[in-house]
Each structure stands twice: as structure tokens, then as C-alpha cells.
Amino acid sequence: MISQASPQVIDQLHISWCGPEAAQVVHDLTQAAFAGQETLEPPSGATRETLEVVRADLGAGRGVLAELGGGRVAAARALFLDDHLHVRRVSVDPGFRRRGLASSVMGWLHHEAADLGYEHVSLGVRKALPSNRLLYEKLGYYEVEDHGFWVELRFDVRPRRSRLEPG
Fold it and tell me: 21-25 contacts: CB < 8 A, separation 24 or more?
């Protein structure tokens, strides 16, 4: 992984879908991004995930990889549900945090969700991580359900086509 970034990196960011073939990269980024969250109560399951679990997640849905200067700097996972796109495990290389990468990945996912005909994007955020929640609220997410130690947030997108249309 690349260790440093400058504030102007977003112009050179390349974001794309990935599948199970990228499980190792997604796993590595997730482990780096979620390091330290095993101390949360309850502990984050992300830090205990195996490569096989990540590969299965990417097979059940898809992954997202963000690349910069030839290095992978961010990842996320997406599940294509009947009525919305659900995003999990948004992960940014710790050396690239606070550079707008998570916002860029989420913006890309909003665009993709609209292109796929979805009306909503959802994700879960732990209450113990208020800065994460604030990030998503700044992007336009709002709370739809409280699950105790985490909340489900939703973003409304405008579909560009019906999900029933061939594409």
C-alpha cells in the first residue's frame, strides 16, 4: 500500500468494480482500515474476517477498488438487494485518510446505484464512531433504523433507468 497522499490526489483516482479475484487486496485494505476497532464493544467483526469470507462477500455482491498512482488505496463491498444497494466495509488505507477518498468512493457508488435503477443506498455505522457517521451525513445520509450499537443510514438517489430495462 502507498503510505502518503497529497490533498489534490482525487483528480487522479480511478474507481471500479471488482470481484472475488481481488479478495486479497480488499482483505488487506479492510484489515488496515479497521485495525484498532477490535476494542469496540462489541468488537468489530472486520478484524476477524478471513480471506475466504471476503472472497465469499465479493462473490455474493461486488467490491469496489480505488486506485491512485498504481496503488490500491480504498475499497468497499456492495450487495445488490431487491430495492436498494447496500454498502459494507468502506476501507481507506490509513496513510490516505482525510483526503476525500471515502467520499469519492461513495459518490461513485451513488452514481452506479442510479445507473442500476436503485432509489437508495444504505450502510451501517457504529455509534462509537461518530466521525464516520458525520462523514455520511455530510454526504446526505439520514438515519432509518437504530440497531443498538449501530444505526442504518440511507441515501436517496435518482435512478437513471428502470432496473427492469435491459442495460
Answer: 22/58, 22/63, 22/65, 23/51, 23/54, 23/55, 23/58, 23/63, 24/51, 25/65, 25/72, 25/75
- Contact call for residues 73 and 2 (beta carbons, < 8 A): yes
**3-state secondary structure at position 148:** coil
pTM for this one? 0.86
Give the residue from 64, 48, 50, 44 showing the smallest Cα distance to 125.
44
Determine, yes or no, domain membership for 44.
Answer: yes
- Residue 57 confidence (pLDDT) above 50: yes
- The pLDDT tens digits of the residues spanning 4-31 come to 333 445 668 899 999 999 999 999 999 9
Cα distances (angstroms) measured from residue 25 to each of 6, 73, 142: 22, 10, 30
Q: Which grid cell sits at 45?
A: 467483526
**Number of domains comprising the chain:** 1
Contact indicator for 143, 152 with CB cutoff of 8 Å: yes
What is the CATH number for 60?
3.40.630.30
